[in-house]
Amino acid sequence: MTQLARSTTQIGNIVKRQRRAAGLTQQDLAERLGVRQATVSSVEAGAGGTKLSTLLDILSALDLELTVAPRSNGTPAALEDIF
Fold first, then answer.
1. Is pLDDT at 83 greater than 60 in this prediction?
2. Which class for 9: exposed (0-12), middle (13-18), buried (19 or more C-beta within 10 A)?
3. Maximum Cα–Cα distance for the chain, whole Å?
4. Residue 80 clears pLDDT 80, i.e. is over it
5. pLDDT tens-place string over residues 26-62
6. Number of H helices and number of E strands within the chain?
7. How many Cα atoms occupy the beta-carbon half-sphere of 80 within 13 Å?
8. Segment 73-76 long-range contacts (CB within 8 Å, at least 24 positions apart)
9. How far apart (Å, rounded) are the C-alpha atoms in residues 28 and 55?
10. What is the Cα–Cα distance from 75 to 27, expressed in whole angstroms?
């Protein structure tokens, strides 16, 4: 299923849902990636400042990928209501 994210908060929510669906704790995911649990927590909370390479590693570990596309109509708040 394709999920659209336009904010760090929305990306964090997607990561959290996928991690939980995979039956992983934040610590489990962090250990797989060789990062601190706080890093996973920060991404899930939508905090900025995460290295792009770290985000891509997290997405990959959760069998997700980043797709860049032209922006569609709709507000971020309306998109969050979908989820």
1. no
2. middle
3. 38
4. no
5. 999 999 999 999 999 999 999 989 999 999 999 999 9
6. 5, 0
7. 11
8. 76/6, 76/7, 76/10
9. 16
10. 33
